[in-house]
Design goal:
Blueprint lengths: L1 H9 L12 H5 L2 H8 L1 H12 L4 H12 L12 E5 L2 E3 L5 E3 L3 E7 L6 E5 L7 E6 L5 E5 L1
Helix pairs in contact: 1-4
């Protein structure tokens, strides 16, 4: 639960064309819809739990959260990237994973972006959906 929300929070800077209040509502599971409806509450609780994590990781998280949100709606994000996953709250207070290779591509219909993690033991592939000018939702598995 928290990991999915943090993936969404981690990509909050993406602003993409597919509207979250349209197509994503047809794809999202009922449980994820409930979590998304309580995004601010769940995010705040997860970040509060994260404060009990390793001090060095908490410092990294705080530095990331202090950065300003930006829009990428006018950018071409296709290509190879370095990505990382940050999990806050839940079984462990805070886990910041190392960098892995990922690829961003057009989703095929020109309306958004696909993310695929191409290294590491856990792989994910999914699509971003615009949820405002400076926030996106990631649906993937």
């Amino acid at each position: 639960m928290i990991a999915r929300l943090l993936i969404a929070a981690g990509v909050v800077c993406f602003a993409l064309p597919a509207l979250a209040d349209g197509e994503v509502q047809k794809l999202i599971t009922p449980a994820d819809k409930v979590r998304l409806d309580k995004y601010d509450e769940t995010r705040n609780a997860a970040l509060d739990e994260a404060k009990a994590g390793d001090a060095a990781e908490v410092k990294q998280l705080d530095a990331l959260l202090a950065k300003p949100l930006v829009s990428f709606s006018d950018k071409d994000l296709t290509g190879n990237w370095q990505c990382r996953t940050i999990k806050a709250g839940g079984l462990s207070p805070l886990v910041i994973y190392g960098w892995f290779k990922c690829k961003v591509s057009d989703d095929g219909d020109g309306s958004g972006w696909m993310l695929e993690k191409i290294t590491g033991s856990q792989r994910t592939k999914g699509r971003f959906f615009d949820d405002g000018e400076k926030r996106s939702i990631y649906l993937g598995s």
